[in-house]
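@channel sequence for tomorrow's demo:
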Amino acid sequence: MDSYEIKDGNFQIIKEKDKKSNEKKLELVKEDKKDFFEIFKENKTIIYSVIFYAAGLLCGSYVYKKLENDLLNQMLAPGKEEFLQLFLNNLSLYFIIFTASVLLGVCLVGFPLLNIIPFFVGVDAGMKIAYFYINYSIKGIGYSLLMVAPFVCLFLTVIIYSVSMSYYLSKSIYDITVKKSDISEDFNYRIYLKKYLCYAGMIIIVALINTAVCTALNGIISL
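structure tokens (generated this afternoon):
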């Protein structure tokens, strides 16, 4: 509410309270507003992972198109395994990729190499999608959207966050060892270990969901 006072026979509006509140709002807006470079810097590992994954998709589809043969088709064709066998196959593949991200995270010079992981995930997905499209046309695209894309996205999400954490872990080890930086207060192995265990649990869940859905839909969806 504005306050009023009589001065020289006229009412003068005093808006000091409103001005102060507006100034505070403007200050808060300025503090909350971040430019593109700040947002990119804060999320650069995730952005790089997505870019390398997209590059892997293109590379995988190109490689399949150039190297298409019976052996490659046999490797990419959907299997007829039982639930347990399919689950173990999915879990072993997922954990090999996850373990690679963890090992690079505890490596002194692992941080420049971590983007290779989402790239190879993209190559694998690109080859599978290209296989289904080239051999089964529109039907193959539909199969990819139902049976490949959802689980690749789930697994990729976990791997991207794992790669992001491994990048900062490896970079911290590098700074402490090579640059002799004093960041011991911010560096805690237990925090990284707990997060890695959480990501490992998520990968088991993704492999279980993937296996359950594929087993259930294999009898309904066929190529």
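heads up for whoever presents: The first strand starts at residue 3 and ends at 7.
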